Amino acid sequence: MRIPEIIKNILCSIKGIIIVIAITILLFEISLQIILYYNHDLARKLLYSSYLFREYRLTEIFLKNYERNLKDPSDEHFAWSDEPYEVHKTRGWTTRKNVKTFHQTNNMGHRNYRDYIYNRNQFAIVTLGDSFTFGTEAKTKDIWPILLEGKSKYYQVVNLGVGGYGIDQMYITLKETIKSYKPNIVLLAYIADDLKRSLYKFNGYEKPRFILMNNRLINKNPYIGNVEQTYNMIKEDYDILTKKNERKFLFPAALNNLYAILINKFFNSLDNELEKINTRLIEEIFIICKRENAELLLIHLGSGKGLMDINFKDKGEIFLEQYILTHKVEYIKSRELFANADKSWAPGHYQRQENEYLAEIIHRKIQKMSSWNNWVSNSGKK
Questions:
Q1: Could you say which architecture CATH assigns to the domain 102-199+271-379?
Q2: For 237-278, how does the pLDDT look when each residue is reduced to its tens digit (9 = 90+)?
Q3: pLDDT tens across 177-217, in order?
Q4: How many Cα atoms within 13 Å fall on the side-chain side of residue 110?
Q5: What region, left, alpha or beta, does residue 183 occupy, with left being phi > 0 and alpha being psi -120 to 50 degrees?
Q6: From the CA atom positions of the chain, what is the Rg in Å?
Q7: Model's pTM, two decimal places?
């Protein structure tokens, strides 16, 4: 039985398309292998999702710094050079106490030029956050927790912000310290990157990493070793990963990475794990606050392009909008307020102008919240 001419033509066309696709994939694979051989950084950008690439790159930097002996390997401050941080056994790192350089800290390690003494007659505010809250690149007197404290003679602000922290590290920090500071209100101030950091197990240094099991948070890395222990662990993982990738057919990894980039770019969607992990972390933070009679205020910190473009939303703002649909919590979407202010803002870390503006926004919000009104009523102060 003869095959009709039209079917022959279709089969030939399909065969031609398959050959073209196969040759394209082969050429692409050869190109990736050449790029990987000559330019690892470019190859990894093509091959890894943003989470994995950043984690992999920071691992490389840590290993190189350690191996060059830029610092004594037994020095607990090694990983951050002159920055005011040290290794912490559960959080990964934290601020050192009594730092007297530019990033000044007090007797408790808070970014402050005054030592901390608990005052039961003050309205206690605890701030959780990353470098924007800690005040990286800003003078101590110009950071927003200091400026917020100056808004009322009754405020006592404890700044627990630490550079590089994710929501997971903020959660652990609050869990371990809330009884010491007895806050009336907890301010959780985050940027979009802090959500991603909750998915890292390494972010310049070893850190906690939570997963979900039956909607319960399980910390897969509850104990953080010293610098030498961290080096040995990271080195072993890095060597295994590197060897696997050198023998690997690279095209599927590149295609998967391209798909993730396009989905994020055109749909601006949240990663499923990112959303679930951070939602549970904030739910747990809320539970801790409620148990200790503290009110929680969620603050999305606008940054970069979002401060100037009213139509630009990053994943941090999208996350907050989704969270408040299903959770009753006080919140501030600061980006819109910054963008509508018709001012020129710093493109990176906040300076005096940005911090002053944010402190005023937060102060006005606090004055309307139940924790403040209850405190005023019970203390008889106004």
A1: 3-Layer(aba) Sandwich (3.40)
A2: 776 656 555 556 667 767 766 766 665 555 555 578 899 999
A3: 999 999 999 999 999 999 999 999 888 888 999 999 999 99
A4: 23
A5: beta
A6: 25
A7: 0.83
